[in-house]
Amino acid sequence: MLRLFCRFIFWVTGWKLDTNVPPQIKRCIVIAAPHTSNWDYWYAMAAFIIYRLKIRYAIKKEWVRFPFSLITKPLGGIGIDRSAKKEGEPRLSQTEALMALFKENDELILLLTPEGTRSKNEHWRTGFYHVAKECNVPILLGYVDYLKKIAGIGKIIYPSDMDKDMKEIMQFYKQFHAKYPDNFSVDIDYL
């Protein structure tokens, strides 16, 4: 029923779905960009519901406890614990915590926004790449394009050479139009 509702929303608003979804994806990282508005999340989630992909996103473990869990869990929130495992040890980095999620889950499609903010950021966070390479999972390039009113997955990257792959990722995202174009930038280190 939810899938039909999402299709209806796309139809009413004039949005289309990129049909380039890979079959049988069970473990991957999905980049969500451009990310300049909270509306990006809703169009992306509607696309993934239509695709029948169970998308998850990482948030602090406190946000998946009651009463917040009533909202965060149904929307795909998965709690991460970055605290040190033993007294005196350093706490986990975000990248290490995400790697742990992949080690703990046989099936995980994790949505990340490497821009890290809805404001303009010319230097993306690259932890997603390190997680994908270390956990041997592909990176799906998810997008929303407000000019063409299309959302979906446009390309798959299998991590091999970071510099080459990041340049390919930036070239891919240069073509899209954010809801607030002045707030979007690809990573200028990889142009």
Portion in beta strands: 15-25%
Give start-end ranges of low-pLDDT stretches.
none
Note the gap between the termini: 43 Å
Order of helices and strands: HEEHEHEHEHEEH
Helix content: 25-40%
Q: Which strand order does the major sheet show?
A: 1-7-6-2-5-3-4
Sheet bearing the most strands, described?
7 strands, mixed
**Total number of strands:** 7
User: Radius of gyration over alpha carbons?
Assistant: 17 Å
The domain tally reads: 1
What is the residue-mean pLDDT, rounded to a whole number? 88
The shape is globular
The class by helix and strand makeup works out as: alpha/beta
Total number of helical segments? 6
Descriptive notes:
One of its GO terms (biological process) is phosphatidic acid biosynthetic process. This is Acyltransferase. It comes from Panacibacter ginsenosidivorans. Pathway: Lipid metabolism. By secondary structure, the chain is α/β, with parallel strands linked by helices. The chain has one domain. Helices cover 32% and strands 20% of the residues. Strands 1-7-6-2-5-3-4 form a seven-stranded mixed beta sheet, with helices on both faces. Helix 1 crosses helix 2 and helix 4 runs parallel beside helix 5. The longest helix has 13 residues. The model has no long low-confidence stretch (mean pLDDT 88).
Give the topology.
Layout: H1 2-13, E1 16-17, E2 27-33, H2 39-51, E3 55-60, H3 69-72, E4 77-80, H4 94-104, E5 108-112, H5 127-135, E6 139-145, E7 150-157, H6 162-173
Parallel strand pairs: 1-7, 2-5, 2-6, 3-4, 3-5
Antiparallel strand pairs: 6-7
Helix pairs in contact: 1-2, 4-5
